[in-house]
Specification:
CATH architecture of the largest domain: Roll
Number of helices: 10
CATH class of the largest domain: Alpha Beta
Shape: globular
Radius of gyration: 25 Å
Oligomer: single chain
CATH topology of the largest domain: Elastase, domain 1
Helix content: 25-40%
Strand content: 15-25%
Number of domains: 3
Largest sheet: 4 strands, antiparallel
Structural class: alpha+beta
Number of strands: 17
Length: about 475
């Protein structure tokens, strides 16, 4: 359960690397406030007194900078934790933009209501003067750092004390894990045949309510599962299993995006449901920002690649509101969804003749395909624009997904995904293949230079797009 605490210092150091110097080693008395420290808390414990100081620069808090002084009640010995951070390049101490503009920028990014704002120094290679804006989002407070010179949101951090749970999932699906194309749904029954496919995983970013509600994913299924102990160990015959699958794989996808340094790509909690729709289909609804996974055939949320495909649509709609309004932009959407399922599978899937990595939704597709390997679609097809255009977004999306597949083969997963996601910010809702390809090449050039741009150009050229 979340408990109210005094957060003055904690808020200022949230997200910083703790640099502890010599806890256990005697030190001189803490520097005076004039030396860049402000006393923010004094605590008394059974063994002594504890003073916490906030590091300051020109009277402004330095984010992540702290100094702790601990006095042993028995001996009088003084121990310190010195977490002061060097402030580089003499940052400005007066803002260019007004606080109201900073609050508006923070609210736009977090979707919350700004409650307070103050000026801070954000350290780094070049320290920056920033407005620190704390917003109430309805799912916990978020702290946005807004550049006080430009109004750019530099980063957003959650201030919620989160819980970690335990869940049982397929990762990505039993066909791939067991290398067994003969598995069948058998009306959703569990059996010993699936035992080796289950994985027990940590469910991160949970909000401590006991429901599958967290920073990056929120389960809105009918009869949502709940556990006060944060233990969600279901099997595929139980509705809770798909709910856990959705939470885990959506959260993992967003956590991966965050590692790329892209903090504004659908970074709010994605709502999803895995019950209530009996069709053998899944879809993202931009009107409600909701992903629905169907339960016809193999329950769609039993296959992480289906989960990730639909998340691909949510990603693009978040980056470009109304994306996919024409045949070619809609085809790009379907192609990216397939590619996103592919790239998320790379770390957890074996690329074998039985289950090629390029094959998407190996498990879900056993319900509607007869040949093996079972695939919804593949991302390594041979279609070329415009000769192979069929006028249907899923079919034509295979042209786009193959180009992205080749970009990853050339640049590696991390660079390719960074380029692809960055480029999508500048796609028009009704973009064409050629225009989107040009944006992708430009992003590659800006991020990683000529070699990366040339690799992207070659991939699109091979598909007849450029």
């Amino acid at each position: 359960m979340t408990r109210p605490t005094r957060r003055t210092l904690a808020v200022l150091i949230a997200g910083a690397t703790l640099v502890a110097a010599g806890i256990g080693a005697p030190a001189a008395a803490a520097p005076a406030a004039a030396d860049g420290l402000t006393l923010v808390a004094v605590r008394q414990s059974l063994l002594g007194a504890h003073e916490w100081y906030q590091q300051t620069y020109a009277g402004l808090p330095v984010v992540g900078g702290f100094y702790g002084k601990h006095i042993d009640a028995r001996t009088g010995a003084v121990l310190v934790q010195d977490g002061r951070i060097a402030v580089q390049a003499a940052p400005a101490t007066r803002p260019t933009i007004a606080v109201d503009r900073a609050r508006a920028a923070a609210e736009a990014r977090t979707g919350g209501t700004a409650r307070r704002a103050d000026l801070v120094i954000l350290p780094g290679a070049r320290a920056t003067l920033a407005w620190r804006v704390v917003s109430d989002t309805g799912r916990g407070s978020q702290q946005a750092m807004v550049d006080a010179a430009t109004g750019t949101v530099l980063r957003v951090d959650s201030l919620v004390k989160e819980a970690t749970g335990t869940g049982r999932v397929f990762d990505p699906n039993p066909v791939v894990t067991l290398q067994n194309e003969s598995l069948g749904d058998n009306r959703d029954r569990d059996s010993a045949a699936f035992a080796g496919a289950y994985r027990t995983v940590s469910l991160t970013q949970l909000d401590d309510t006991g429901f599958l509600t967290g920073t990056y994913a929120t389960n809105v299924s009918k009869k949502p599962v709940n556990s006060a102990a944060h233990s969600y160990l279901f099997n595929r015959s139980q509705d809770g299993f798909e709910q856990v699958m959705g939470y885990y794989h959506l959260t993992r996808a967003q956590e991966y995006i965050q590692t790329l340094g892209l903090t504004g790509v659908n970074s709010s909690a994605q709502h999803y449901r895995t019950t209530g729709f009996a069709g053998d289909n899944s879809f993202y609804d931009p009107g409600t920002d909701l992903i629905t996974y169907g339960t016809g055939g193999v329950d769609d949320a039993e296959d992480a690649e289906v989960i990730w495909h639909e998340y691909g649509h949510a990603i693009q709609d978040d980056q470009v509101p109304g994306f996919g309004s024409t045949l070619e932009s809609g085809s790009i959407g379907e192609g990216f969804g397939d590619y996103w399922a592919y790239t998320m599978s790379v770390p957890v899937s074996a690329d074998t003749a039985t289950t090629p990595l390029a094959c998407i939704a190996d498990w879900d597709s056993v319900s509607y395909t007869s040949g093996t390997p079972h695939c919804l679609r593949r991302v390594d097809g041979t279609k070329v624009y415009p000769g192979d255009v069929a006028g249907e977004v899923h079919a034509d999306g295979e042209i786009w997904s193959r180009a992205l597949f080749d970009i990853q083969a050339s640049l590696g997963r991390t660079q390719a995904d960074t380029v692809i996601l960055e480029a999508q910010f500048s796609f028009a809702p009704n973009t064409t293949f050629a225009a989107a390809a040009q944006r992708t090449v430009a992003a590659a050039q800006a991020l990683f230079g000529a070699a990366a741009a040339n690799a992207c150009t070659a991939a699109f050229h091979a598909r007849g797009i450029l």
